[in-house]
From TrEMBL:
Annotated Pfam families: DUF3192 (PF11399)
Record InterPro entries: DUF3192
Superkingdom of origin: Bacteria
Signal peptide: 1-19
Protein name (database record): DUF3192 domain-containing protein
Keywords: Signal
Organism: Thalassotalea euphylliae
PROSITE patterns named in the record: PROKAR_LIPOPROTEIN
Amino acid sequence: MKKSLVLLLTALPLTMALSGCVVSVGGDDGHYGYDLGDREYENRKKIARLQLNASFADVQSRLGVADFNEVYQKDGENVQVLYYRTNRKHKDGITTKDECTPLIFRDGLLVSWGEMAYAQL
């Protein structure tokens, strides 16, 4: 019985020392503490404050780096479209264009934004 007691008293502290601890950081979006919902809300607030004819540089300084960026020429004008994430549709942590609001610039000035505006290009 003494051997069993000694073995138990030896094994118990070793078991406790090896058990470890797991710390969960962030939510279930896989971004380790960065909430995409906060980013989407902030982007929507910033886009709501935009003014037509704002310069590309001004908009980019307010909103930061776009999630997607397209540039092309149409009818002799430079057209640039910046996409900012504004609403989650897929709970996979990956940003897609259908989760973004497009901002359309012609020759460096903001001329429109939103899905309807983009569809009319």
